[in-house]
Amino acid sequence: MLPGWQEADGAHIAALHVDLAPGWKTYWRAPGEGGIPPLFDWSGSENLKSVGFIWPAPEVFDNSGYRTIGYKGGMTLPMRLVPIDPSKPITIRGQVDMGVCEEICMPVTLPFSAALPMNGPRDPAIAAAMASRPFTRAEAKVQDVDCDIEPTDRGLALNAVVDMPPTGVIENAVVEVRNPRIWVDPAVNQRDGNKLHISADLSSISGGAMMVDRSAITLTVLGSDYAVEIQGCD
Questions:
Q1: Which residue from 111, 162, 185, 216 could staple onto 178, CB 3.0 to 4.6 Å apart?
Q2: In which domain, by residue range, is 155 found?
Q3: Do residues 200 and 217 touch, judged by C-beta distance below 8 A?
Protein backbone atom coordinates (compact mmCIF):
# COMPACT_ATOMS: atom_id res chain seq x y z
CA MET A 1 0.00 0.00 0.00
CA LEU A 2 1.51 3.35 -1.06
CA PRO A 3 0.62 5.78 1.80
CA GLY A 4 0.37 8.92 -0.33
CA TRP A 5 -0.65 12.37 0.92
CA GLN A 6 -3.53 14.41 2.32
CA GLU A 7 -5.40 16.86 0.08
CA ALA A 8 -6.42 20.38 1.11
CA ASP A 9 -10.04 19.25 1.65
CA GLY A 10 -8.94 16.59 4.14
CA ALA A 11 -9.27 13.59 1.79
CA HIS A 12 -6.27 11.29 1.50
CA ILE A 13 -4.77 10.01 -1.76
CA ALA A 14 -3.16 6.56 -1.45
CA ALA A 15 -2.76 3.58 -3.78
CA LEU A 16 -2.68 -0.19 -3.92
CA HIS A 17 0.48 -1.24 -5.75
CA VAL A 18 0.72 -4.82 -7.04
CA ASP A 19 3.81 -6.36 -8.66
CA LEU A 20 3.26 -9.45 -10.80
CA ALA A 21 5.69 -11.98 -12.23
CA PRO A 22 6.50 -11.64 -15.96
CA GLY A 23 3.63 -12.82 -18.13
CA TRP A 24 0.99 -12.49 -15.40
CA LYS A 25 -1.88 -10.00 -15.36
CA THR A 26 -4.67 -8.84 -13.09
CA TYR A 27 -8.05 -7.32 -13.81
CA TRP A 28 -9.87 -4.00 -14.17
CA ARG A 29 -13.18 -3.17 -12.42
CA ALA A 30 -15.08 -4.61 -15.44
CA PRO A 31 -12.82 -7.59 -16.16
CA GLY A 32 -14.54 -9.04 -19.22
CA GLU A 33 -15.32 -12.70 -19.80
CA GLY A 34 -14.01 -14.92 -17.02
CA GLY A 35 -12.05 -12.19 -15.18
CA ILE A 36 -12.23 -11.41 -11.47
CA PRO A 37 -12.49 -7.73 -10.44
CA PRO A 38 -10.77 -6.52 -7.24
CA LEU A 39 -13.05 -6.64 -4.19
CA PHE A 40 -12.03 -4.68 -1.07
CA ASP A 41 -12.91 -5.29 2.57
CA TRP A 42 -12.20 -2.20 4.73
CA SER A 43 -13.84 -3.48 7.92
CA GLY A 44 -10.74 -3.14 10.15
CA SER A 45 -10.06 0.49 9.21
CA GLU A 46 -10.21 3.50 11.53
CA ASN A 47 -11.46 7.03 10.78
CA LEU A 48 -12.52 6.00 7.27
CA LYS A 49 -15.82 7.30 5.86
CA SER A 50 -15.63 6.35 2.16
CA VAL A 51 -13.28 5.21 -0.61
CA GLY A 52 -13.31 6.18 -4.29
CA PHE A 53 -11.07 4.61 -6.92
CA ILE A 54 -9.22 6.37 -9.74
CA TRP A 55 -8.77 3.58 -12.29
CA PRO A 56 -5.86 3.83 -14.75
CA ALA A 57 -6.78 2.97 -18.34
CA PRO A 58 -6.49 -0.82 -18.75
CA GLU A 59 -5.46 -3.06 -21.63
CA VAL A 60 -7.67 -5.44 -23.60
CA PHE A 61 -6.49 -9.05 -23.92
CA ASP A 62 -7.85 -11.61 -26.40
CA ASN A 63 -7.37 -15.23 -25.34
CA SER A 64 -8.82 -17.92 -27.62
CA GLY A 65 -11.76 -15.72 -28.56
CA TYR A 66 -12.41 -14.46 -25.01
CA ARG A 67 -11.86 -10.81 -24.10
CA THR A 68 -10.50 -9.82 -20.70
CA ILE A 69 -9.53 -6.35 -19.49
CA GLY A 70 -6.78 -5.51 -17.02
CA TYR A 71 -3.12 -4.82 -16.38
CA LYS A 72 -0.06 -6.86 -17.33
CA GLY A 73 2.92 -7.05 -14.98
CA GLY A 74 1.11 -5.26 -12.15
CA MET A 75 -0.89 -2.16 -11.39
CA THR A 76 -1.02 0.94 -9.22
CA LEU A 77 -4.62 1.71 -8.26
CA PRO A 78 -5.02 5.21 -6.75
CA MET A 79 -7.83 5.78 -4.29
CA ARG A 80 -9.37 8.78 -2.58
CA LEU A 81 -10.09 8.05 1.08
CA VAL A 82 -12.41 10.39 2.95
CA PRO A 83 -11.91 10.49 6.74
CA ILE A 84 -14.65 10.74 9.35
CA ASP A 85 -12.57 13.39 11.16
CA PRO A 86 -10.19 15.29 8.80
CA SER A 87 -8.08 16.44 11.77
CA LYS A 88 -7.06 12.84 12.53
CA PRO A 89 -5.10 10.32 10.44
CA ILE A 90 -6.67 7.35 8.67
CA THR A 91 -5.60 3.79 9.43
CA ILE A 92 -6.59 1.24 6.81
CA ARG A 93 -6.81 -2.47 7.52
CA GLY A 94 -8.49 -5.14 5.46
CA GLN A 95 -7.98 -7.32 2.45
CA VAL A 96 -8.48 -7.33 -1.30
CA ASP A 97 -9.69 -10.34 -3.26
CA MET A 98 -8.47 -10.23 -6.84
CA GLY A 99 -7.76 -12.46 -9.80
CA VAL A 100 -4.36 -13.08 -11.33
CA CYS A 101 -3.81 -14.94 -14.55
CA GLU A 102 -1.08 -16.39 -16.75
CA GLU A 103 -2.29 -19.48 -18.63
CA ILE A 104 -4.61 -20.35 -15.74
CA CYS A 105 -6.51 -17.74 -13.71
CA MET A 106 -6.80 -17.95 -9.96
CA PRO A 107 -8.20 -15.85 -7.11
CA VAL A 108 -5.85 -14.49 -4.44
CA THR A 109 -6.50 -12.72 -1.14
CA LEU A 110 -4.04 -10.02 -0.08
CA PRO A 111 -4.21 -8.49 3.42
CA PHE A 112 -3.16 -4.85 3.85
CA SER A 113 -2.53 -2.49 6.73
CA ALA A 114 -1.20 1.07 6.74
CA ALA A 115 -1.29 4.21 8.87
CA LEU A 116 -1.64 7.08 6.40
CA PRO A 117 0.54 10.12 7.20
CA MET A 118 -1.24 13.46 7.23
CA ASN A 119 1.90 15.29 6.02
CA GLY A 120 3.21 12.75 3.51
CA PRO A 121 4.77 13.97 0.24
CA ARG A 122 3.18 13.50 -3.17
CA ASP A 123 4.19 10.13 -4.59
CA PRO A 124 5.28 10.21 -8.28
CA ALA A 125 4.07 6.61 -8.80
CA ILE A 126 0.56 7.49 -7.60
CA ALA A 127 0.54 10.74 -9.60
CA ALA A 128 1.56 8.86 -12.78
CA ALA A 129 -1.22 6.29 -12.27
CA MET A 130 -3.77 9.09 -11.76
CA ALA A 131 -2.57 10.79 -14.95
CA SER A 132 -3.14 7.58 -16.93
CA ARG A 133 -6.89 7.50 -16.23
CA PRO A 134 -9.23 7.66 -19.25
CA PHE A 135 -10.12 11.08 -20.64
CA THR A 136 -13.42 12.61 -19.56
CA ARG A 137 -16.23 13.43 -21.97
CA ALA A 138 -15.06 17.06 -22.22
CA GLU A 139 -11.37 16.18 -22.58
CA ALA A 140 -12.12 13.77 -25.44
CA LYS A 141 -14.33 16.32 -27.24
CA VAL A 142 -17.41 14.09 -27.13
CA GLN A 143 -20.15 16.05 -28.88
CA ASP A 144 -23.21 13.94 -28.17
CA VAL A 145 -24.31 10.63 -26.62
CA ASP A 146 -27.63 9.11 -27.69
CA CYS A 147 -28.90 5.91 -26.05
CA ASP A 148 -31.86 3.71 -26.90
CA ILE A 149 -32.94 0.94 -24.51
CA GLU A 150 -35.47 -1.59 -25.78
CA PRO A 151 -36.98 -4.76 -24.28
CA THR A 152 -35.95 -8.16 -25.66
CA ASP A 153 -36.92 -11.74 -24.83
CA ARG A 154 -33.79 -11.93 -22.60
CA GLY A 155 -33.99 -8.53 -20.94
CA LEU A 156 -32.95 -5.22 -22.47
CA ALA A 157 -30.89 -4.14 -25.46
CA LEU A 158 -28.82 -0.96 -25.15
CA ASN A 159 -27.78 0.83 -28.33
CA ALA A 160 -25.66 3.96 -28.02
CA VAL A 161 -24.31 6.35 -30.62
CA VAL A 162 -21.37 8.44 -29.42
CA ASP A 163 -20.25 11.44 -31.50
CA MET A 164 -16.50 11.59 -30.86
CA PRO A 165 -13.19 11.46 -32.73
CA PRO A 166 -11.51 8.03 -33.10
CA THR A 167 -9.42 6.93 -30.11
CA GLY A 168 -7.09 4.83 -32.26
CA VAL A 169 -7.06 2.26 -35.02
CA ILE A 170 -8.45 -0.36 -32.61
CA GLU A 171 -11.34 0.50 -30.27
CA ASN A 172 -13.08 -1.65 -27.65
CA ALA A 173 -16.19 -0.41 -25.84
CA VAL A 174 -17.32 -1.44 -22.35
CA VAL A 175 -20.79 -0.85 -20.89
CA GLU A 176 -21.35 -0.72 -17.10
CA VAL A 177 -24.65 -0.14 -15.29
CA ARG A 178 -23.51 0.09 -11.63
CA ASN A 179 -26.03 -2.55 -10.56
CA PRO A 180 -24.61 -5.92 -9.44
CA ARG A 181 -27.96 -7.62 -10.13
CA ILE A 182 -27.75 -6.84 -13.85
CA TRP A 183 -25.50 -8.85 -16.17
CA VAL A 184 -24.03 -6.93 -19.14
CA ASP A 185 -22.89 -8.95 -22.14
CA PRO A 186 -19.61 -7.91 -23.82
CA ALA A 187 -20.30 -4.81 -25.89
CA VAL A 188 -20.01 -4.71 -29.67
CA ASN A 189 -18.84 -1.49 -31.31
CA GLN A 190 -18.55 -0.20 -34.86
CA ARG A 191 -17.37 3.18 -36.13
CA ASP A 192 -18.92 5.27 -38.91
CA GLY A 193 -16.79 8.41 -39.23
CA ASN A 194 -17.08 10.33 -35.97
CA LYS A 195 -20.02 8.19 -34.82
CA LEU A 196 -19.19 5.20 -32.63
CA HIS A 197 -22.05 2.71 -32.38
CA ILE A 198 -22.06 0.63 -29.17
CA SER A 199 -24.51 -2.15 -28.35
CA ALA A 200 -24.85 -4.55 -25.42
CA ASP A 201 -27.52 -6.87 -24.06
CA LEU A 202 -28.58 -6.55 -20.40
CA SER A 203 -30.25 -9.26 -18.34
CA SER A 204 -31.32 -9.72 -14.73
CA ILE A 205 -29.22 -12.24 -12.79
CA SER A 206 -32.37 -13.38 -10.97
CA GLY A 207 -34.29 -13.71 -14.21
CA GLY A 208 -36.94 -11.19 -13.14
CA ALA A 209 -37.78 -7.64 -14.08
CA MET A 210 -35.14 -4.92 -13.92
CA MET A 211 -34.79 -1.17 -14.16
CA VAL A 212 -31.79 0.71 -15.55
CA ASP A 213 -30.81 4.18 -14.33
CA ARG A 214 -29.49 6.03 -17.40
CA SER A 215 -27.44 8.40 -15.26
CA ALA A 216 -25.60 5.41 -13.75
CA ILE A 217 -24.55 3.96 -17.11
CA THR A 218 -20.83 4.25 -17.90
CA LEU A 219 -19.49 3.90 -21.44
CA THR A 220 -15.74 3.36 -21.67
CA VAL A 221 -13.91 3.35 -25.00
CA LEU A 222 -10.49 1.71 -24.85
CA GLY A 223 -8.62 2.87 -27.93
CA SER A 224 -5.14 1.96 -29.10
CA ASP A 225 -4.14 5.65 -28.67
CA TYR A 226 -6.11 6.67 -25.57
CA ALA A 227 -9.19 5.80 -23.51
CA VAL A 228 -12.38 7.75 -22.80
CA GLU A 229 -14.91 7.33 -19.97
CA ILE A 230 -18.43 8.74 -20.42
CA GLN A 231 -20.75 9.02 -17.43
CA GLY A 232 -24.46 8.86 -18.14
CA CYS A 233 -26.38 7.81 -21.25
CA ASP A 234 -28.83 10.47 -22.44
A1: 216
A2: 144-231
A3: no
